Amino acid sequence: MKVKSKKQDRIPGIVISLILFVVECAFLVLLLYTKLISVKYIGIIAAGLLLLLVIVYFLVRKIRKPVPFCIGVVLVLLITVVLGLASLYIYKTVSTLDSITGVNQEYTEINVYVKQDDKAQKLADASGYTFGILGELDRTNTDAALKQVYNELGTDVQTAEYAGLGELADALNHGTCGAILLNKAYLDVIAEMDQYGSFPSQIREIASLKVATVVERNTPAAQQPSSAEKEQTSSDTSAKDDAVTDEVYTIFVSGIDTRGGMTASSRSDVNIILTLNATTKQILMVSTPRDYFVPLSISNGVPDKLTHAGIYGVNVCMDTLDMLYDIDINYYFRLNFAGFEQIIDALGGVTVNSDYDFTSGEYHFNQGENHLNGEQALVFARERYAFQEGDRQRGRDQMAVIQGVVDKATQPAFLKNYLSVLDSLDGAFETNVPYDVMASLVRKQLDEGGTWQVLSYSVDGTGDTQKPYSMSSKAYVMIPDQNTVDKAKVLMKKVREGFRLSEADVAR
Questions:
Q1: What pLDDT digit, counting tens, does each position of 43-95 carry?
Q2: Are 181 and 163 in contact (CB under 8 A)?
Q3: Which of 241, 251, 288, 394 is an S-S bond match for 274, by CB 3.0 to 4.6 Å?
């Protein structure tokens, strides 16, 4: 009877210890799955959890000793709660990163428009109409949308081609065609053209068609074939720099001119190239003005405003910047204006340094430090008319806001807003950076610690009036200052190669 009593005395302790063992194992498996923490630290955590398990076992092994048993039970409950909360944070982190990373597809919204007073209410009502289309501009997307129109109407579609946006608008206004098929992003472009400012309000959408495009980018050099392998397959020695590692990335940051869906193509009003060296913990931001007058990758050498590249998709944005700076952009981050506000509000606001004292809308910004909420930060980042340097200063202010976000996110107090920040990212921010790459950067930072140096530089130019590729009339553009472009190339190359830049190196 005594033997049986002793066994029964130990059974509760064994059961409690087994439960704790399962909880700890599940937590360790979750840590391994995330890839956010190195095996070294997971080993340390495992050792700590094992020690706690041993302590708990010795406390609860005999139920007839109520004081240590109760202490052990309370300790198990505390450990379970702590690991449960940690698992919640980890799961939320992984699920959010998984939802915003690895995005490799975007959509171009091609709409069917008629005049406001037209009787057609839906696409079927336009059967038999002549559809006006652009002859060359955005022709790939237009043709894809035409196929969808044909499939829905079930009949041949009569089309009439026009050389430019002005000609297309005139055709609809004059009744030469009954409807037009047009990339939605072009509406803002038309509104900026002389004599067509009211055109978007004179038309009505009766159908919206989405054309999918795969976003394809260059793999970082360290993941590509070696130089020797390249020489075996090609005698071409590119002028672009290959002296990078898998810890060096060139990333395009785009702020799209829309409050709609993230995956829809739109004008890119923020065009910043991040050169990130995880070894030296250095980030260089290079801002290119939206009105920079440069050939697009699809324009056969004809210059256009850089912002218009976004109309044709993020691939064209990145390829155009590749051409301008002789680089290979690996990935992109894209943020819409609504998301911009959400993230900053979730952070509890950011502190931004302003070069000037100015007023924009209902807000006044002081020279020096300003604590801004999401709406204020958006106004600050979008203002250009208050400055003599216009869009050039706006680019600097945009980078100042990014700097403020980085500073806030690297402070210990960030943890109290952590979950709300994660919630704000979903649907407001997207990137084609793979989850594994993002996880490796987080893991490296946790392993090594240390602060990051963030520097910024803006290329310059001269204002002029020219006819851009995407427009039917002349408009304000900025002719690039090649000296500043060349300096940006040198700065990006130095960061890639591991040189430490100073504020003096990026001074204007």
A1: 999 999 999 999 999 999 888 788 889 999 999 999 999 999 999 888 888 88
A2: no
A3: 251
Compute φ and ψ for 416, nearest 5 degrees: -70, -20
Residue 145 inside a domain? The answer is: yes
What percent of the residues of the chain are helix, what percent strand, and what percent coil, each to the nearest 5? 45, 20, 30
Checking if the pLDDT of 241 tops 90, the result is: no
Last residue of a domain, one of 70, 100, 130: 100
* Number of compact structural domains in the chain: 3
Q: 14: Cβ–Cβ under 8 A, 6 or more apart, which residues? A: 61
Residue written as token pair 């910043």: 272
Residue 294 located in a structural domain: yes
Q: Do 451 and 331 share a structural domain?
A: yes
If you ran DSSP here, which 8-state letter would residue 151 be given? H
Cross-strand partners of 132: 160, 180
On the question of pLDDT at 176 being above 80, the answer is yes
pLDDT computed for residue 282 by the predictor = 93
- Residue 422 CA to residue 97 CA, distance in Å, equals 9
Distance CA 190, CA 167 (A): 11
What domain range includes position 91? 2-100
162, 186, 213 - which closes a domain: 213
Report the pLDDT averaged over residues 326-350: 85
Give residue for tokens 């931004």. 352
Q: Mean pLDDT over residues 21-32, rounded? A: 93
